[in-house]
Design brief:
Elements (H helix, E strand, L loop, with lengths): L12 E4 L12 H15 L26 E3 L3 E2 L7 E2 L1 E3 L13 E11 L11 E9 L2 E8 L4 E11 L2 E8 L6 E7 L3 E7 L5 E8 L1
Parallel strand pairs: 5-6
Antiparallel strand pairs: 2-3, 4-7, 6-7, 6-13, 7-8, 8-9, 9-10, 10-11, 11-12, 12-13
Length: 206
């Protein structure tokens, strides 16, 4: 996905191996959306290591290299507070082709749920995410309205159009992989929840 300096990992209380099944009530989109919300809530970042200051952390931007945000301890990183955006809908996920992820600070600028999973509809939600890539380390600060917040550090590796994340902070987790694409400035990640929907995440390097 991104380069990597300090990485935020998207984890759950049991890692990303969420086991919740998504049922469909009569094939109705609203039932799909409601059931999917439960899956997202279970598979979304946990509040382990989450910030307690609702107004956002008092930090200044490091240089554009993405390598100045390591914090250590339970906080994991000192990334800038992300900007919240509304999650839209898209019919089918875009094609991805991998690429070299440039070091730097990235902000999520757009996000969509793949409506394929929701029978044409999708849940109303907001999301916010900031990542910093420094070599093979990625820092992640993630906030959403379906579960809670996440702050973490991960190691990343890429192969073809797959990016693999291995969390090291706040605690080691089983690696997980997603499809991605980048042109050096824009980073696209297809965050596919286990047994759930796919969130198309668009990041832009600052």
């Amino acid at each position: 996905m991104l380069g990597a300096c300090d990485s935020p990992a998207v984890e759950t209380d049991a890692g990303l191996d969420a086991t919740a099944e998504v049922g469909v009530d009569g094939g109705k989109a609203d039932a799909h959306v409601e059931a999917a919300a439960d899956v997202v809530a279970e598979a979304a970042p946990s509040d382990a290591g989450a910030p307690t200051d609702a107004g956002g952390p008092d930090v200044s931007y490091a240089d554009a290299s993405g390598c100045g945000y390591a914090e250590g301890g339970s906080q994991c990183n000192a990334l800038p507070w992300p900007t919240t955006i509304s999650v839209g809908c898209v019919s089918g996920v875009p094609a991805v082709d991998g690429g070299a992820i440039a070091d730097g600070l990235y902000f999520m600028t757009q996000a969509e749920w793949d409506t394929t999973y929701f029978d044409g509809g999708c849940p109303s939600s907001t999301w916010a995410s900031t990542v910093a890539v420094c070599g093979s380390t990625l820092q992640w600060f993630d906030i959403n309205d379906v579960k809670s917040d996440y702050i973490g550090t991960l190691t990343i590796s890429t192969a073809a159009s797959q990016i693999t994340f291995t969390q090291s902070c706040p605690s080691p987790q089983t690696p997980y992989s997603f499809s991605y694409s980048t042109d050096g400035t824009n980073l696209l990640v297809l965050f596919a929840f286990p047994k759930g929907p796919t969130l198309v995440m668009h990041f832009t390097r600052q």
